[in-house]
Amino acid sequence: MNLKNHLIFTLYTIYGILLKVMASKGKVRGISGQYPLVQNVTVTEGGTANLTCRVEYNDNTSLQWSNPAQQTLFFGDKKALRDNRIELVRASWSELTISISDVSLSDEGMYTCSLFTMPVRTAKAYLTVLGVPEKPEIDGLTKPALEGDQITLTCITQGSKPAADLRWFRNEKEVKGAKEVNASGKTFTVRSSLNLRVDRNDDGVAYTCRVDHVALTQTTQQATEVLEVHYPPRVEIIHSLAIPQEGQYLKLECVSKGNPSPDPVMWTKDGGELPDLDRMIVEGRELTFTSLNKTDNGTYRCEATNHLGTSQAEYVLYVYAPTTLPPSTTPPLHPIPPDPTALLGTHASDPTVTGNRGTYLTNEAKGADDAPDADTAIINAEGNHAHAEEKKEYFI
């Protein structure tokens, strides 16, 4: 404390003694209801705290703010402690408000507002300083991981007060980790661990550790790591035709999934090399037949390999003649009855004949002269084959 502040503090002390002496002689009397009113304050580390002391009734008695170490900050509008962070906001007979900027954790504690009546009346306000958690870090990630590996991701954040909460997300879905809290002075170090047995479905998945804390009202503290998982390939063949026929264009695509990518792939026919490279074109993962024929029949194999393993798939090709379809393996649901109109000729319209249109009965019939209609004539014909010489052709 410099000489000036020491003199001010001494004067305030003498002033307080005089007040006591005068009060003992009955010359100063406190008014009933003269009590300072204060409120607790919570501020985030690095922020600004305003401490306000009010009195409802005051007979020109001074107000004073002091810190947790009982050092006087302001006596009325007079600054007593040399600290550039502390400023006067408002000073009157009914209010004394001061501000503390760039608040640190060391500023936390009980602050006292004193009203110099006889006896001196005080009110205490607690200043709570929230420790802002640091940006979290994720440890334990191996790049790349192998399918089947057991790994543990650990998320760490320091400097929170009170202790922060850590939450894990697999992409956007929350997953549960194991939390551990350790005190470090006035702040806390928080860890959360996540145990994983990785497979190919974890490749490219983002794991995010997010900090939840009362001091983080407008910002989000989080860290993200994207998993890279290596795994052996899996292969399948996709074909462009359901029923390949001679002369058609056919494409076989070897779809292989693996990390690292198994590129290129290898095509074989019946265990050997492709026989006709003029019509069988290999481009990347695709095998194309420009014009199918019967010689293409056989078993085609696609094989893909990376440093973790090999996978293969087969496609059996049978080329049908253009008018030949494979036999049906499904019987009809209902027997198909004979068509009664099969006995009649085809309904036709001859564009070369105008006005002559009809149905011709191609069966020969006997007794048509006696039959009332054509159907009867046909039935008669079917039932009497002995008189073939009498069969005639009718126009209906």
TrEMBL record:
> What topology in the membrane does the UniProt record assign?
Single-pass membrane protein
Looking at the record, the residues that make up the Ig-like domain are 36-128, 136-228, 233-318
SMART domains cross-referenced by the UniProt entry: IG, IGc2, IGv
Q: Which GO terms describe its cellular component?
A: membrane
Q: Does the keyword Transferase apply?
A: no
Could you confirm whether the keyword Kinase appears in this record? no
- CDD domains for the chain: IgV_1_Necl-3
Spell out the Pfam families in the cross-references: C2-set_2, Ig_3, V-set
Sorted alphabetically, the keyword list is: Disulfide bond, Immunoglobulin domain, Membrane, Repeat, Signal, Transmembrane, Transmembrane helix
Q: Which GO terms describe its biological process?
A: homophilic cell adhesion via plasma membrane adhesion molecules
| Annotated InterPro entries | CD80_C2-set, Ig-like_dom, Ig-like_dom_sf, Ig-like_fold, Ig/MHC_CS, Ig_sub, Ig_sub2, Ig_V-set
Extent of the signal sequence: 1-23
Q: Where in the cell is it found?
A: Membrane
Q: Which PANTHER family match?
A: CELL ADHESION MOLECULE 2 (PTHR45889:SF1), IG-LIKE DOMAIN-CONTAINING PROTEIN (PTHR45889)
Q: What is this protein called?
A: Cell adhesion molecule 2a
From which source organism is this entry? Seriola lalandi dorsalis
